[in-house]
């Protein structure tokens, strides 16, 4: 008799793939208990071997298995220090490297610590909605392997802010305990400075699909989750929540940001102040829209912009592929040029006064460098991991250092916005 989980829809092929993955991950766990520093390179090389097995599963099952693997600590851990050239300070936070994991992977903050240990300079969780919601009907994730791209229409599936707050609160408590030397009694009255910890945590906030007041949803997210975040993000650019992108209009955006900033600033903060507030925008905006957003960002002293979310457009390279006409947001290499162009425009419109996070199509160190030269202080990726696995990270860092040296830059900070100098 077939196992119960196979009866529910998984094929024997997928079951074998899952078993193989489990076996390989177990081997990696064993290896990581030995000489971790010297085995770090081997572990990332080994990840290359089993990464293709994830693609034998349907995309959402593979995504779920990847999150679980990360939460169980089954991904390779980077024990080698980041090259000093890659360190950068933004918003008073020190990033050991500029490469971050974009929101959308760890939606419910299940694997933050272990994802940071893989070697990301920052990890962004979410989008988190106030109330739990299932998102859009399945299937809702589609690979386009010929282009190493993905189309998704998840629709802000989220366990809600209570579940995420519990997980982040537990992490916060563990770090405070470590900072106090391990004595729980010393926790009383101590201030935990997350900026001194390895890795930076961003929390991406969304709204519930049927919420009549988007602003209230974002305010609720701020009140509940900002105490655990190194930075906050208002996501108003997902194409999969009806009406969300309308919030990018000048009047709506200015009103929303001021309301969220007021909610953040009315809370009590220590000497380090509140977490910076960023807005994530779409790549499908007209020039006039970008000018409006830049004007608002400067007027309200917004801390940063993430450029960009997925696109609803379909470049020629996507058309004709099996899943190319699926509705939803397109991510991956076909988005690189579009998102980088929007980012470059925004850098010029804000005169470099608003820190930018370059997101969209990054799948190599050269891609990241292109965004940095176009004005990004930090970069983010997600889809590239689907196709290249964790080894992408050390490969990107090596290539990024090579790009810096080739152009005579001693640090990431020197290269930011170099295309416009």
TrEMBL record:
Give the bilayer topology: Single-pass membrane protein
**Gene3D superfamilies (UniProt xref):** Aldolase class I (3.20.20.70)
**GO terms for cellular component:** mitochondrial inner membrane
- Species of origin reads Klebsormidium nitens (Green alga)
What family name appears in the similarity comment? Belongs to the dihydroorotate dehydrogenase family. Type 2 subfamily.
Give coiled-coil spans as residue ranges: none
Q: Which NCBIfam families match?
A: PRK05286.1-2 (NF003645), PRK05286.2-5 (NF003652), pyrD_sub2 (TIGR01036)
Q: What is this protein called?
A: Dihydroorotate dehydrogenase (quinone), mitochondrial
Where's the Dihydroorotate dehydrogenase catalytic domain?
86-404
Which biological process, per GO, is one annotated for this protein?
'de novo' UMP biosynthetic process
Q: Which reaction does it catalyse?
A: (S)-dihydroorotate + a quinone = orotate + a quinol
Task: Look up the EC number in the record and give it.
Answer: 1.3.5.2
Catalytic class of the enzyme: oxidoreductase
- Principal localization reads mitochondrion
Reading the lineage from the top rank, the first entry is Eukaryota
């Amino acid at each position: 008799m077939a196992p119960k989980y196979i009866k529910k829809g998984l094929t024997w092929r997928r079951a074998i793939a899952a078993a193989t993955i489990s076996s390989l991950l177990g081997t990696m766990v064993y290896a990581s208990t030995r000489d971790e520093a010297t085995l770090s390179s081997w572990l990332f090389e080994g990840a290359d071997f089993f990464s293709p097995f994830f693609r034998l599963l349907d995309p959402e099952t593979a995504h779920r298995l990847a999150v679980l693997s990360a939460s169980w600590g089954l991904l390779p851990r980077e024990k080698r220090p980041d090259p000093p050239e890659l360190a950068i300070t933004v918003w008073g936070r020190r990033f050991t490297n500029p490469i971050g994991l974009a929101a959308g992977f760890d939606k419910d903050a299940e694997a933050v610590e272990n994802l940071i240990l893989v070697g990301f300079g920052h990890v962004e969780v979410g989008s988190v909605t106030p109330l739990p919601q299932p998102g859009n009907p399945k299937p809702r994730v589609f690979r386009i392997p010929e282009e190493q791209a993905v189309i998704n229409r998840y629709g802000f599936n989220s366990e809600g802010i209570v579940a995420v707050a519990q997980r982040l609160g537990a992490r916060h408590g563990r770090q405070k305990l470590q900072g106090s030397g391990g004595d729980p009694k010393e926790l009383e009255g101590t201030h935990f400075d997350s900026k001194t910890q390895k890795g930076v945590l961003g929390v991406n906030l969304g709204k519930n699909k049927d919420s009549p007041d988007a602003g209230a949803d974002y305010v609720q997210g701020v009140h509940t989750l900002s105490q655990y975040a190194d930075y906050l993000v208002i996501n108003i650019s997902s194409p999969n929540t009806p009406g969300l992108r309308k919030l990018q209009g000048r009047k709506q955006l200015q009103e929303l940001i001021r309301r969220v900033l007021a909610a953040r600033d009315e809370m009590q903060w220590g000497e380090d102040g509140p977490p910076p507030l960023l807005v994530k925008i779409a790549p499908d905006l007209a020039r006039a829209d970008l000018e409006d957003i830049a004007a608002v960002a400067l007027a309200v002293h917004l801390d940063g912009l993430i450029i960009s979310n997925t696109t609803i457009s379909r470049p020629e390279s996507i058309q004709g592929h099996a899943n190319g006409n699926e509705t939803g947001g397109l991510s991956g290499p076909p988005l690189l040029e579009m998102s980088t162009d929007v980012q470059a425009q925004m850098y010029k419109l804000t005169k470099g006064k608003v820190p930018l996070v370059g997101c969209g199509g990054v799948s190599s160190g050269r891609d990241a460098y292109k965004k940095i030269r176009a004005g990004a202080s930090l970069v983010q990726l997600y889809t590239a991991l689907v196709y290249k696995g964790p080894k992408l990270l050390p490969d990107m860092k090596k290539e990024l250092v090579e790009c810096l040296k080739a152009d005579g830059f001693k640090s990431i900070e020197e290269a930011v916005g170099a295309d416009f100098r």
